[in-house]
Protein backbone atom coordinates (compact mmCIF):
# COMPACT_ATOMS: atom_id res chain seq x y z
CA UNK A 1 0.00 0.00 0.00
CA UNK A 2 2.88 2.38 0.76
CA UNK A 3 4.23 1.83 -2.75
CA UNK A 4 0.84 2.66 -4.30
CA UNK A 5 0.43 5.78 -2.15
CA UNK A 6 3.84 7.07 -3.24
CA UNK A 7 3.64 6.33 -6.98
CA UNK A 8 3.01 9.99 -7.80
CA UNK A 9 6.47 10.86 -6.49
CA UNK A 10 8.20 8.70 -9.10
CA UNK A 11 8.70 10.78 -12.23
CA UNK A 12 9.02 7.68 -14.42
CA UNK A 13 5.54 6.42 -13.55
CA UNK A 14 2.31 7.83 -14.92
CA UNK A 15 -0.57 7.39 -12.44
CA UNK A 16 -4.24 7.66 -13.29
CA UNK A 17 -7.28 6.68 -11.24
CA UNK A 18 -10.54 7.24 -9.42
CA UNK A 19 -11.03 6.85 -5.68
CA UNK A 20 -14.29 6.72 -3.77
CA UNK A 21 -12.94 8.87 -0.95
CA UNK A 22 -10.70 11.92 -0.92
CA UNK A 23 -9.45 11.03 2.56
CA UNK A 24 -7.83 7.89 3.81
CA UNK A 25 -4.95 6.05 2.23
CA UNK A 26 -4.97 7.49 -1.30
CA UNK A 27 -4.12 11.07 -2.19
CA UNK A 28 -6.24 12.86 -4.80
CA UNK A 29 -4.27 14.94 -7.29
CA UNK A 30 -5.69 17.76 -9.39
CA UNK A 31 -4.56 17.84 -13.05
CA UNK A 32 -1.08 19.25 -13.47
CA UNK A 33 -0.01 18.84 -9.83
CA UNK A 34 1.94 15.62 -10.36
CA UNK A 35 2.81 13.14 -13.11
CA UNK A 36 -0.73 11.81 -13.07
CA UNK A 37 -4.24 12.35 -11.79
CA UNK A 38 -6.40 10.61 -9.22
CA UNK A 39 -9.88 12.09 -9.03
CA UNK A 40 -12.60 11.54 -6.42
CA UNK A 41 -15.79 9.71 -7.25
CA UNK A 42 -18.46 12.41 -7.32
CA UNK A 43 -22.12 11.60 -7.57
CA UNK A 44 -24.35 14.34 -8.92
CA UNK A 45 -25.99 15.76 -5.80
CA UNK A 46 -25.77 19.52 -6.25
CA UNK A 47 -25.52 22.02 -9.09
CA UNK A 48 -27.10 19.44 -11.42
CA UNK A 49 -28.14 21.07 -14.70
CA UNK A 50 -31.33 20.12 -16.49
CA UNK A 51 -32.23 17.60 -17.87
CA UNK A 52 -30.15 15.66 -15.32
CA UNK A 53 -31.47 14.85 -11.86
CA UNK A 54 -29.72 14.40 -8.52
CA UNK A 55 -28.31 10.94 -7.89
CA UNK A 56 -28.47 8.74 -4.84
CA UNK A 57 -25.00 8.22 -3.37
CA UNK A 58 -25.51 4.55 -2.62
CA UNK A 59 -23.59 4.79 0.65
CA UNK A 60 -20.13 3.48 1.43
CA UNK A 61 -19.05 0.47 -0.59
CA UNK A 62 -22.00 0.73 -2.93
CA UNK A 63 -20.52 2.81 -5.73
CA UNK A 64 -17.11 1.64 -6.91
CA UNK A 65 -16.93 -2.07 -6.28
CA UNK A 66 -14.79 -3.60 -9.01
CA UNK A 67 -11.31 -2.14 -8.88
CA UNK A 68 -8.47 -2.55 -11.30
CA UNK A 69 -4.80 -1.67 -11.59
CA UNK A 70 -2.91 -1.82 -14.86
CA UNK A 71 0.87 -1.94 -15.03
CA UNK A 72 2.65 -1.28 -18.34
CA UNK A 73 -0.52 -1.53 -20.43
CA UNK A 74 1.35 -0.75 -23.66
CA UNK A 75 4.43 -2.88 -22.94
CA UNK A 76 5.18 -6.46 -23.98
CA UNK A 77 4.38 -7.81 -20.50
CA UNK A 78 1.42 -5.87 -19.11
CA UNK A 79 -0.18 -6.84 -15.82
CA UNK A 80 -3.80 -6.21 -14.97
CA UNK A 81 -5.28 -6.88 -11.55
CA UNK A 82 -9.05 -6.63 -11.13
CA UNK A 83 -11.66 -7.66 -8.60
CA UNK A 84 -13.39 -6.61 -5.40
CA UNK A 85 -10.13 -6.30 -3.43
CA UNK A 86 -9.35 -2.89 -1.93
CA UNK A 87 -5.73 -3.96 -1.58
CA UNK A 88 -6.12 -3.58 2.15
CA UNK A 89 -5.61 -6.13 4.92
CA UNK A 90 -9.22 -6.00 6.16
CA UNK A 91 -10.71 -7.06 2.86
CA UNK A 92 -8.06 -9.63 2.16
CA UNK A 93 -8.19 -11.25 5.60
CA UNK A 94 -11.84 -10.85 6.61
CA UNK A 95 -14.10 -10.16 3.61
CA UNK A 96 -12.90 -12.78 1.13
CA UNK A 97 -12.27 -10.12 -1.50
CA UNK A 98 -11.03 -11.43 -4.82
CA UNK A 99 -8.33 -10.30 -7.21
CA UNK A 100 -7.67 -11.74 -10.67
CA UNK A 101 -4.48 -11.25 -12.70
CA UNK A 102 -4.37 -10.96 -16.50
CA UNK A 103 -1.29 -10.65 -18.69
CA UNK A 104 -2.94 -10.44 -22.13
CA UNK A 105 -1.91 -7.16 -23.86
CA UNK A 106 -5.32 -6.76 -25.51
CA UNK A 107 -7.16 -7.08 -22.21
CA UNK A 108 -4.76 -4.63 -20.51
CA UNK A 109 -5.29 -2.08 -23.30
CA UNK A 110 -9.08 -2.40 -23.06
CA UNK A 111 -8.91 -1.74 -19.32
CA UNK A 112 -6.54 1.21 -19.91
CA UNK A 113 -9.06 2.83 -22.26
CA UNK A 114 -11.79 2.25 -19.67
CA UNK A 115 -9.58 3.82 -16.98
CA UNK A 116 -9.15 6.95 -19.09
CA UNK A 117 -12.89 7.11 -19.73
CA UNK A 118 -13.69 6.76 -16.02
CA UNK A 119 -11.12 9.33 -14.89
CA UNK A 120 -12.34 11.88 -17.47
CA UNK A 121 -15.96 11.20 -16.50
CA UNK A 122 -15.42 11.56 -12.74
CA UNK A 123 -13.07 14.51 -13.14
CA UNK A 124 -15.90 16.38 -14.90
CA UNK A 125 -18.33 15.39 -12.15
CA UNK A 126 -15.91 16.58 -9.44
CA UNK A 127 -15.54 19.92 -11.23
CA UNK A 128 -19.32 20.16 -11.55
CA UNK A 129 -19.73 19.64 -7.79
CA UNK A 130 -17.74 22.83 -7.16
CA UNK A 131 -19.63 24.96 -9.67
CA UNK A 132 -22.23 27.57 -8.83
CA UNK A 133 -24.44 30.09 -10.56
CA UNK A 134 -21.75 32.73 -10.13
CA UNK A 135 -18.96 30.34 -11.15
CA UNK A 136 -20.43 27.86 -13.65
CA UNK A 137 -18.46 25.19 -15.49
CA UNK A 138 -17.36 26.74 -18.75
CA UNK A 139 -15.60 25.30 -21.76
CA UNK A 140 -12.48 27.29 -22.48
CA UNK A 141 -11.82 28.13 -26.10
CA UNK A 142 -8.42 29.68 -25.55
CA UNK A 143 -5.43 27.42 -25.96
CA UNK A 144 -7.13 24.34 -24.51
CA UNK A 145 -4.53 22.08 -26.13
CA UNK A 146 -1.39 23.76 -24.75
CA UNK A 147 -1.23 21.51 -21.69
CA UNK A 148 -0.91 18.50 -24.02
CA UNK A 149 2.43 19.90 -25.28
CA UNK A 150 3.84 21.17 -21.97
CA UNK A 151 6.37 18.52 -20.80
CA UNK A 152 5.71 19.51 -17.16
CA UNK A 153 1.99 18.66 -17.46
CA UNK A 154 0.61 15.15 -16.98
CA UNK A 155 -1.57 15.65 -20.08
CA UNK A 156 1.60 15.79 -22.19
CA UNK A 157 2.81 12.58 -20.57
CA UNK A 158 -0.58 11.00 -21.24
CA UNK A 159 -0.48 12.06 -24.92
CA UNK A 160 3.02 10.60 -25.41
CA UNK A 161 2.19 7.40 -23.53
CA UNK A 162 -0.97 6.77 -25.53
CA UNK A 163 0.72 7.56 -28.85
CA UNK A 164 3.09 4.58 -28.49
Would you mind describing this structure in some detail?
The chain is of the alpha+beta class and about 160 residues long. It has one domain. It is about 25% helix and about 15% strand. The chain is built from four helices and five strands. The chain has helices at about 1-5, 90-95, 105-130, 155-164; strands at about 15-20, 35-40, 65-70, 80-85, 100. The strands form two sheets. Strands 3-4-5 form a three-stranded antiparallel beta sheet, covered by helices on one side. The mean pLDDT is about 75. Pfam families: PLDc_2.
Number of helices: 4
Beginning-to-end CA distance, first to last residue: 29 Å
Helix and strand succession? Answer: HEEEEHEHH
* Strands, count: 5
Number of domains: 1
Measured as a percent range, the helix fraction is 25-40%
Rounded to an integer in angstroms, the radius of gyration calculated over CA atoms is 17 Å
The dominant shape is globular
Strand order of the largest sheet: 3-4-5
Would you tell me the overall average pLDDT? 75
Ranges with pLDDT <50 over ≥5 residues?
none
Report the β-strand fraction as a percent range.
Answer: 5-15%
Structural class: alpha+beta
Instruction: Report the biggest beta sheet as strand number plus sense, adding barrel if it closes.
Output: 3 strands, antiparallel
Protein name: PLD phosphodiesterase domain-containing protein
Organism: Didymodactylos carnosus
Pfam families: PLDc_2
Domain PLD phosphodiesterase: 60-91
Summarize the topology.
Elements: H1 2-5, E1 15-19, E2 36-40, E3 67-71, E4 79-83, H2 89-94, E5 100-102, H3 105-129, H4 154-163
Parallel strand pairs: 1-2
Antiparallel strand pairs: 3-4, 4-5
Amino acid sequence: MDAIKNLHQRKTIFTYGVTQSEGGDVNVFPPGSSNGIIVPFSFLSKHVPQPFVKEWSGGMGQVIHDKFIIIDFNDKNPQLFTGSSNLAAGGEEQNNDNLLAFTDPNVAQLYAVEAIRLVDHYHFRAVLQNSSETSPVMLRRDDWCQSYYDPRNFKCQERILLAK
